[in-house]
Write a structure and sequence with these properties.
Blueprint (H helix, E strand, L loop, with lengths): L3 H27 L18 H16 L3 E4 L4 E7 L5 E7 L17 E3 L2 E3 L3 H21 L6 E7 L7 H9 L5 E4 L2 E3 L2 E4 L1 E10 L5 E6 L5 E2 L2 E6 L4 H7 L4 E6 L2 E7 L3 E2 L9 H11 L6 H14 L12 E2 L2 E2 L1 E9 L2 E10 L5 H14 L3 E8 L2 E2 L5 H14 L6 E3 L11 E3 L2 E3 L19 E3 H28 L1
Helix pairs in contact: 1-3, 3-10, 6-7, 9-10
Length: 476
């Protein structure tokens, strides 16, 4: 192909011939409930049957395209178009999804297309993009465009809950010369906040709280929460609680349910944590007894009412934006447990955060029991490849946006030279109501036109990266 016009024509022809197949492949992946289960190291299914099944489907698709397939012990799978002694360019996407939660308008694992959107859990995060990357490899195989470097796609199954997938991959495989992670927005993400997961625990067996359940995942803002109380008159509870709460009489007492707005913990704007809302209401209206129970609920209410860390004393802002916090809350064996997700700034000191968490917990009779850290990621915006990719995206999309930082985390943070790069657009508002249609939300959907645009950008990105890597090697 001698010109950009000729390349554009070939890409257009390829998409015309393959769009329907791409949609069907994405639907096939979405139909598989690939919520990761409890980590089971050493098992052939380390993240459960659903994740194993979706990797089996990915292997089938890769083998259909005659890629060289490597299964990384159930953590993920790599499909390689070609290897090279000069190193490789790698795409990294994930096939695990967060739990579907409630309040869907349709069954989350029965995908369909409507009004130009592909609907279903995982459509946006991250299965449609994974298929787009697979077809980039198919494009280069079909077109026989020469590359000076290898090209592969890695699909993992633990991105949402620990990123053991890519860490396992890197324990057995050299990193790429450059990695493209299609799990964010264009034009290019140059910084990802650090992510600290923290577990808190405190006793709540001294009162009339029998159960509390609000959320199951660290990184999902709970859309619903419920508590069971004994020795509370249901009519009294209905009178004192606002209309957004429901009260149900049970043989053992009453169940109170609160509704919120779900969303990704890293992007709390427009969300409403139902667990925090419920804890505040139970205490404010005198429905809960027991000094330890009240202190634990006050911890939930006061330390997590602000999604920006003010209650915990860890509020912070730098080039990567504001620190954010989220908590899922559950009660087990007379103890209240909080699963806390903290996204901290690229320049924020992690050790200082942990000390402040311990101090905040102690003030409420709680205890910090576990932390797990994923350090921040940064690639200089003037890195030659990063700058070229940013320019490419802006040129192709007709935008003029700078590279950005975000609270979301991707596989890029574990790679020495990589960036999250599309397929979403920051300049296009969502047509869905707040709390719906996005990743980690009910009625998740992916705009198909964005996938077709991203596919074209990814093909050209491979050529740009291949050229710049070759030039760097010549200069060195």
């Amino acid at each position: 192909m001698k010109s950009s016009q000729e390349l554009d024509w070939h890409i257009s022809q390829f998409l015309e011939a393959n769009q329907e197949a791409m949609i069907e492949d994405a639907k096939g992946l979405i139909r598989i409930n690939s919520v990761g289960l409890a980590y089971n190291p050493g098992s052939s299914q380390p993240f459960g049957e659903g994740c194993s099944s979706v990797l089996d489907e990915a292997i089938r698709l890769m083998q259909r395209e005659k890629l060289d397939v490597t299964d990384f012990d159930g953590y993920g799978v790599k499909g390689e178009l070609a290897a090279s002694e000069r190193g490789s360019i790698g795409f990294f996407a994930h096939l695990d999804v967060v739990p579907e939660g409630g309040d869907w308008s349709f069954p989350p694992y029965e995908p369909f297309v409507r009004d130009g959107y592909l609907f279903g859990r995982g459509a946006m995060d991250n299965k449609a993009a994974a298929v787009a990357a697979l077809y980039v490899l198919k494009f280069f195989a079909d077109s026989k465009l020469p590359l000076g470097h290898g090209l592969y796609l890695f699909l993992g199954c633990n991105e949402e809950n620990g990123m053991r997938d890519i860490r396992h991959f890197l324990s057995r495989h050299e990193p790429p010369q450059f990695g493209i992670v299609p799990d964010a927005y264009f034009p290019l993400c140059f910084a990802e906040k650090g992510m600290l997961r923290a577990d808190f625990e405190g006793e709540v067996a001294d009162g009339n709280l029998l159960a509390f359940n609000g959320g199951t995942e660290y990184n999902v803002v709970p859309a619903a929460a419920s508590a069971i109380l004994r020795d509370v008159d249901p009519e009294h509870a209905r009178q004192v609680l606002p209309g957004s709460f429901t009260v149900e009489a049970l043989p053992e007492g009453i169940r109170i349910t609160a509704s919120g707005k779900a969303g990704h913990a890293a992007f709390p704007e427009g969300t409403d944590n139902a667990a925090v809302k419920l804890a505040a209401a139970l205490a404010a209206h005198g429905l809960v007894r027991g000094s330890r129970t009240l202190r634990a609920l006050a911890f939930v209410q006061e330390c997590f009412a602000s999604p920006y860390g003010h209650g915990l004393g860890i509020a912070f802002r730098d080039m990567s934006g504001e620190a954010t916090v989220n908590a899922a809350v559950r009660m087990e064996n007379g103890r209240l447990r909080l699963l806390c997700d903290i996204r901290y700034g690229v320049t924020q000191e992690k050790s200082g955060i942990q000390q402040l968490l311990e101090e905040a917990a102690a003030r409420y009779g709680m205890r910090l029991t576990r932390t797990e850290d994923s350090p921040p990621h940064y690639i200089a915006p003037d890195d030659p490849i990063a700058a070229a990719l940013c320019d490419l995206a802006n040129r192709e999309l007709g935008t003029n946006q700078p590279p950005y930082a975000m609270g979301g985390i991707t596989h890029a943070r574990w790679l020495p030279r990589a960036a999250a790069f599309g397929p979403l657009r920051r300049d296009k508002p969502s047509p869905f109501p707040a709390g719906r249609g996005g990743g980690h939300q009910p009625d998740e959907a992916m705009y198909l036109e964005a996938i077709w645009e991203a596919f074209q950008i990814y093909v050209k990105a491979v050529l740009v990266i291949d050229k710049l890597l070759s030039e760097e090697k010549e200069q060195n």
